[in-house]
Design a protein that fits this description.
With 235 residues, the chain is mainly α. The chain has eight helices and two strands. Strand 1 and strand 2 form a beta hairpin. The radius of gyration is 19 Å and the shape is elongated.
Length: 235
């Protein structure tokens, strides 16, 4: 499986995604630093920090923006690695190898999952570290509600990163079913609205039961994306 994942990274030129992830991490760090310390979160009329309901703390904003960014990146990569591979004929060549189709598809999914999980964890650490560093010199617009010295911080960070990246399997299933890369990417935006948006004072962000349920559904969708691969015709 590891060799197949390395082949997927090489075939899809993983280097370009590394560059995108690094740029994304830098942009998020700069934006959230400015959001917390440079007044871009302030209401222009009152000068008071203004944030959506449920986003009045630093960690809520960090989780929202990083989750949105990497859910989209994960869906784009799954679309490129798998959906586009069907459409441009690359998957024909892969399926000609004496390896089960399900294993080939699973390796592509795992290649994307591992990359984005690692990238999201490192990005969150960079953002949180940047914000914590700024607190030694400036007064934050929002209360600092995280503690990077405790193990609970890292456990929650890892779990939340795994949940977000796993959700992208729903986008993959939709893209494969619709035979469209665009459908996979558009569905990631729908997932963002579902998981991060507010309806009045109500939001699903941070809801542990909802996150667990959606993760379970995502794994089911991942299973259905590959279980008939041995008998299904190519796109």
């Amino acid at each position: 499986m590891w060799k197949l994942m390395k082949l997927e990274w090489k075939k899809n030129r993983i280097g370009k995604y590394v560059k995108k992830a690094v740029i994304l991490a830098l942009m998020l760090s700069l934006f959230l630093f400015a959001f917390v310390y440079l007044g871009i979160a302030n209401d222009p009329d009152t000068g008071v920090p203004d944030a959506a309901t449920g986003s009045g703390t630093i960690s809520a904003s960090v989780e929202m923006f990083t989750s949105m960014s990497f859910l989209i990146l994960s869906s784009v990569m799954l679309s490129s690695f798998l959906v586009s591979a069907y459409k441009n004929g690359t998957m024909d060549l892969m399926f000609s190898y004496p390896i089960r189709r399900q294993k080939i598809l699973a390796s592509g999914m795992l290649a994307v999952w591992i990359f984005n999980f690692a990238a999201l964890v490192l990005t969150k650490l960079a953002v949180y570290g940047c914000i914590l560093w700024g607190s030694f010199f400036r007064k934050p617009a929002f209360p600092i509600d995280f503690d990077m010295t405790g193990p609970d911080f890292y456990i929650q960070l890892i779990v939340k990163a795994a949940v977000i990246v796993t959700m992208s399997f729903i986008s993959l299933f939709i893209g494969l079913a619709a035979k469209s890369s665009k459908a996979a990417i558009v569905s990631s935006f729908v997932l963002i609205l579902l998981t991060q948006a507010n309806i009045g004072d109500y939001t699903m962000a941070g809801n542990a039961v909802f996150s667990f349920g959606l993760t379970s559904v995502s794994l089911v969708f991942a299973f259905f994306s590959i279980w008939k691969a041995e008998t299904a015709d190519l796109m």
